[in-house]
């Protein structure tokens, strides 16, 4: 494109020069030309100022310093926006609600939650986003782009924050401490979410029902159940899911598909995570280490539950009384006492229990399943393989002599782990001390335990 601008068309040479420069830059953008090349990498830019800012990433130069704290910035604009955090200035107000923001972009993104606008669509699937950055990060899931590599192990991540948080697990750095207990965290947001367990604060409320949530993301996922937006319906039943992978995992319950096979044995799994956890049994890997003692764990759930024994954290509260629990299952079992629900029923007797473990201890036949076809001739136990069953039956012969003469005795006793027996069974019916590990519990005693 020829430049047809003439000096006499502008008031003075300075105006002409500026306009000529802007026109030249505009032409380069139109032609796709990028004439300014970074001296440290292969990136090119149409503006010299953009190139200069980019080069500061390589050099680490941050010439703009916040006047209220020690933070420094590559761009002056970013420094000015940061200083508003200190001054409390929030000049951009949402036109749909009372919220205000320090950044115009933050306000624009927030307003999209009211309008439902999601202008950025994934080029690989139908998912849409309110922010361009969220869309870019999501697309890396499809492309497999994991550009952020841990400097201590072989793991790689799509997000820089995820990589930074992971690296802290290697060096043991947990800079964020709960103000209500001794628990520490690698990420600030995790600490904030945890503190809401103590305060009971649930800032995010569903706009369609009365449910409230401590975490905004959980609220967003819940609202999709109401709107049907981005939800995935099981093709075999009426269940709906907000995450596609959860729906796929669920459908495998119907189909029986188990595509993930252990590389050390013949076991197969419907979920990759379950397969990974199982393989740790073979490798002995225990990646979750307690920060308060030397214990290590194969699964995150076991690690979290153990950690609560140190911190005293009890996040699950009974909805009928003030009692709190460290485990969700314990809370559920407790709440059944209030409602009178007893879902665990025996097959041979008309007994029901609110806690499954009590049912298993008292009536071991409830643990039988179609997957354990080999039944002990002397007690209620069942086994996957005949070899396991034969080995178990030898325990009876060792304890009671030849089992041919002890069959009637074996069928009328149960030898549960003494630690799992409810406290009310510790005393026998006549008031004497109850059975010990070497003195099995008669079934007759068990049958009256919960009456």
UniProtKB/TrEMBL annotation:
Pfam families: zf-C2H2 (PF00096)
Protein name: Zinc finger protein OZF-like
InterPro entries, alphabetized: GLI_C2H2-zinc-finger (IPR050329), Znf_C2H2_sf (IPR036236), Znf_C2H2_type (IPR013087)
UniProt subcellular location: Nucleus
Top-level division of the source organism's lineage: Eukaryota
GO molecular function annotation: DNA-binding transcription factor activity, RNA polymerase II-specific; RNA polymerase II cis-regulatory region sequence-specific DNA binding; zinc ion binding
Keywords assigned: DNA-binding, Metal-binding, Nucleus, Repeat, Transcription, Transcription regulation, Zinc, Zinc-finger
This protein's GO CC annotations: nucleus
Domain C2H2-type per the UniProt entry, residue ranges: 36-63, 64-91, 92-119, 120-147, 148-175, 176-203, 204-231, 232-259, 260-287, 288-315, 316-343, 374-397
Predominant subcellular localization, coarse grouping: nucleus
SMART domains hit by this protein: ZnF_C2H2
Any one biological process term the GO annotation gives: positive regulation of transcription by RNA polymerase II
Gene from which the chain derives: LOC106169069
